[in-house]
Structures are given as C-alpha cells and as structure tokens.
Amino acid sequence: MEEFKKTGEERVFKGGASRDAAIGKGAPHWMPSIALFLVSRIYENGNIQRDKLNGGIGNGDSRNWENGMPINELLGSAERHIQRYREGDRNEPHLPQAAWNILNAIMMSVWIWLGYRDVSFNNLPDHIHNWKPGDPSPCPLSPQEIEWLKVRGIEKNNTTQ
C-alpha cells in the first residue's frame, strides 16, 4: 500500500482527525477573493472578445495569451496600467489589467523555464551583471520560485499533468 505524501509534521484536530502540515503548499484561502474576481473579469472579457466562435472578433482562440508572448511585453503593459492608475485614470480597470499581465508574465516564465514556450519569449535584460544586448537573458525564475515549484512536483524533467 502506498503511503500518503506528507509535507511536514502532522496536525491533530480536536475530534481526533489528523492531517499533514499545510506549510509550503500555498495559501489560496488567504488571497483577496474580490481582487481575484476583478482580475478574472479581465480573463473573461479578453477571451470573449477574442473568441470568434462565441461572437467575438478574434480568430477563435479564446486562450490567445497561452500561445506565448515576450515577458517584457507583459511587464511593459503592467507598468503602463499601473502608471495610468497612479495618474488618476479610472476610465478602465487598470489594476486588474496590470495584475493580469503580471500573472501571465509569471506563468510565461514558468513555461519558458520548463521548455514549454520558446526561449525567445524570455527577452529580459540583466542590468545587475556583466550582460549586454545579444547575450542570453537570465533565468526567468528565481531559485526560490524553482524550489516552490518542486514542492508541487513541477520540475524540468518531472512535470505534473
């Protein structure tokens, strides 16, 4: 019989039930649900607009961003939305749009690191080391992010389905 994967010291509850530690597994229950809802509307609206099959103007690909785009493109868009918000522009949902771009930059970084998206999408400069244009970009993930992914079983040669 296979043992359950444990991630730390077991917790025992008042009724006698036990469970392994939740440390290192992420804490989505602490994320702000209303803010997540507002960001999810950006995904919803963008996908509806791009999904020609459902009345949008796009090419039928409602998950367009997942095809890949340069990390710097996503970060530049996030920075522009943050700037507009900082300037007082409330004509559109700038903070949720900035968060959409940042979340997608994170995911694109993971996919590039795993080899699932073309390395050319990692167009990040490295201005704190001896780097110049034309040199390879630095790894898009920090060592800590790579370690966190390993907790989920996500590794370059052993990815979860």
Overview in brief:
The chain is an all-alpha fold and 161 residues long.
Keywords:
161 residues; mainly alpha; two-stranded antiparallel sheet; globular
Topology:
Blueprint: E1 11-12, E2 18-19, H1 33-50, H2 71-87, H3 94-114, H4 143-151
Antiparallel strand pairs: 1-2
Contiguous low-pLDDT stretches (5 residues minimum) are: none
What strand order characterises the main sheet? 1-2
Q: Say how many strands there are.
A: 2
Rounded to the nearest angstrom, the distance between the terminal CA atoms is 23 Å
Given the helix and strand composition, which structural class is it?
A: mainly alpha
What fraction of the residues are assigned to beta strands by DSSP?
under 5%
Topology order in helix (H) and strand (E) letters: EEHHHH
How confident is the prediction overall: mean pLDDT? 88
Report the C-alpha radius of gyration, rounded: 20 Å
Largest sheet: 2 strands, antiparallel
What gross morphology would you assign? globular
Helix segment tally: 4
Please estimate the helix content: 40-55%
Could you walk me through the main structural features you see in this protein, from its secondary elements to its overall organization?
The chain is mostly helical and 161 residues long. Helices cover 40% and strands 2% of the residues. It has helices at 33-50, 71-87, 94-114, 143-151; strands at 11-12, 18-19. The protein has a two-stranded antiparallel ribbon with strand order 1-2. Strand 1 (11-12) and strand 2 form a beta hairpin. The longest helix is centred in the middle third of the chain and has 21 residues, at 94-114. It is globular.
